Amino acid sequence: xxxxxxxxxxxxxxxxxxxxxxxxxxxxxxxxxxxxxxxxxxxxxxxxxxxxxxxxxxxxxxxxxxxxxxxxxxxxxxxxxxxxxxxxxxxxxxxxxxxxxxxxxxxxxxxxxxxxxxxxxxxxxxxxxxxxxxxxxxxxxxxxxxxxxxxxxxxxxxxxxxxxxxxxxxxxxxxxxxxxxxxxxxxxxxxxxxxxxxxxxxxxxxxxxxxxxxxxxxxxxxxxxxxxxxxxxxxxxxxxxxxxxxxxxxxxxxxxxxxxxxxxxxxxxxxxxxxxxxxxxxxxxxxxxxxxxxxxxxxxxxxxxxxxxxxxxxxxxxxxxxxxxxxxxxxxxxxxxxxxxxxxxxxxxxxxxxxxxxxxxxxxxxxxxxxxxxxxxxxxxxxxxxxxxxxxxx
Length: 394
Description:
By secondary structure, the chain is of the alpha/beta class. It has helices at about 55-65, 70-75, 100-110, 130-140, 155-165, 185-195, 215-230, 245-250, 260-270, 290-305, 310-335, 345-380; strands spanning about 5, 10-15, 30-35, 85-90, 115-125, 145-150, 170-175, 200-205, 240-245, 270-275, 385-390. Helices cover about 45% and strands about 15% of the residues. Strand 5 (about 115-125), helix 4 (about 130-140) and strand 6 (about 145-150) form a beta-alpha-beta unit. The radius of gyration is 28 Å and the shape is elongated.
């Protein structure tokens, strides 16, 4: 957490206080620096403004007063006022029919909360007119910014890129097909201003709505995931959430190649709250998340957050070994008692198939972990950005 410190006549403070400080310029990252003399004039301390410190004894007294407040000095340095900037990040893949409606509704929702905003659209290598539609929206509103990948790197990579280059005091991630209704954004922002570092938007099934097979399979997967992992994952949350800047910076510090954001966010350990919403129908276009993509995401989740599959290999080996010993005892006893005739080709074939299957399954599970170690060791980037509009440093 950015701290409070200074040397000589230079005072350095954390940038995201959410209030104006005389003589300090707001920057997206890094501390703001104020040049002042020890006897400079300053504004009277308030609940929103961190005062300029005049004398050493005054510095100590003020620090003690701030630390005595609920949440301590950390809470003061992270005040969340109406002057904070809200970043909205959304990945797009062949969603040309959703761009205009998405930007319009998101802009209206954030403005209704009284905050400044930026909308960062991440094009995950679309092959339709999505890039051109994004450029057109930016021409109408300079707060609309964009990143375009050189090819399709995947939904999770697109969200990671958005979190990396978003500059707001908090960042909201959501899908661009409008199944995540933008009208929920003021509720997320309200919970954040009330002190939450992570606000998850949790789906509530509309009365009479039947779950698709993918939704039912997904909820079963999360049940399995939570049973084999120490990191709890919400089954009905998805990637619709708000993250405070501290949580975003902590997330950006994670450099692993295989990313399962729905597990990494709770792993960070920040305070979480929930906002319930009803999922909407797609505004336009077709679903681009295939069964293969869902399976890859499920495997990334399990193998990134649990070593239980490796332990299952050991358990499976013990069970099959015990079965083999018992079957051997049975076969020898039956042979000497004359209960079986010579031969036994059927039982032999069954044993070979069973033990061969167990061995291949064990090798396959171990290979998944080894393959991930191999990919991580190469240190390739999660994505390649081919072009950026309005994004600094991309």
